[in-house]
Amino acid sequence: MKKEVYFLINSLDVDRGGLTKACIQQANLSADLGYETNILTFNYNGEYSELIGKVRQRYNVKNKVKIHNMYDYFRNEYSINKKDIAIDQLIRNTDILEKVVNKDAYRVYDDGIYRNYITYRNNGSVKGVDYFDDSRYRIKSEFFTPEGYSGKISYMDIITNKPRQMVFKNSKGMSYLSKWINHETGLANRIVLFKDNEIMKVLKNDKELKIYFIEQLILKNENPILVSDARNTDEIMANVKNIKAKKIIRLHSNHISAPFDHSSEVAPTVKYALDNLDKIDCLAVLTNQQKEDITRRFKYNEKVVCIPHGIDITAKTNIFGKPKVGNDIVVVSRLVSLKQVNHIIEAVALIVKEKPDLRIKIYGSGDQEKNIKALIKKKHLETNIILMGYANNINEVYENALFSIVTSKTEGFSLSILESMANGTPVIAYNFNYGPNEIIVNNEDGRIIEKNNVKVLSETILELSNNRDLVSHMSKNALKNIENKFSKKQIKNMWHLFLNEI
Question: Within a domain: residue 319?
Fold first, then answer.
């Protein structure tokens, strides 16, 4: 029987970072190799029916890749009884309404008493209704799906304003799952699955529910391969009891904490994986350097395998390259502290007087966006550094750039370096673990500089921005390098051999 591969990730959404992209790319590769391929998600999202279509389009998920959500699986509906619940209908007979400023929401009053908070979508369909008692405590919160039915009801603790019980319903109004919640921790301590108004299964917590979901999904498969792509699914996968299942954990980040050297402690998110290598069949990493570091420290040499990301040279470029015509320098990154985008701003401030026409476009979003905007303003670099938001056309961004910059503290591989070079765009990168040293050939197709050295970063930006011939030379070498070492065909062969042997 053909092997079937299941990629585990907690959730999918649009405008996500490298982990989501890497998981989907790997699933597409698996499907191309002829394996029955699945992506499993575990979060509740009553709008998954619409969201998955957007995810497939945004990340080019192949039709052969099946996406299964745990709650949709237990809801077990092949057709949905759609209802039209519009906000206009819901508020038509209410006496007193208050439109919430700058939000798609209303407050509803009954004889002066605040009763409901109603939210709605852009198309006018009702999204949620919160219910309040006479003392303005929230007692119930009801979520409505885009199809118009009540998909989840949370019964609230009136003191903490957090759920004590959740009930999940199908489009026919029947409950298929309920949870008792510890309102202090937010964790489930009893879960009941229903089928046709009868109790089907009682579980202790969410971990048991997720394990049960996987075990039911792979029950009839003779050769299931489970791949945990997110650290919050490692323990779930490791505790699946199906003895036929092969279990692989794929690391996408550094396995140690700051300052990211050999004396550092194991990163909390990765600790379970490294402490439980005896429970899995393989730990897959993206660089040989990380493989060596892990086996040196944790042994299990036979279980650690290195398979990097693969990528195609884009159709608009060719292996011989072409002169770089763009003037912009680009940064494609989540705007979080780990990426140290502020270093780039500080570097530009050191050279802007010498090169006032220097322009850097930053693509991405994150919790540091406000701080980055403030730093740009403080340094008076508004005309030199432009925040572009999330990039949907990543290949076009790179192809039209002169070069790109990566200043991370640490990464597992740096997909952005690979994508930049595959578009013939050299990279200036800090010398962090892991990725730059195994992707970039220093001074030939990019520059690797001392980590956290803003002065050297500024000097390198100035040098490359003033030397278009050097950049064009690096561009051609970058294309050849990626074609020779990281083509999708080569990586696909590595995965094919690995999956056949495991």
Answer: no
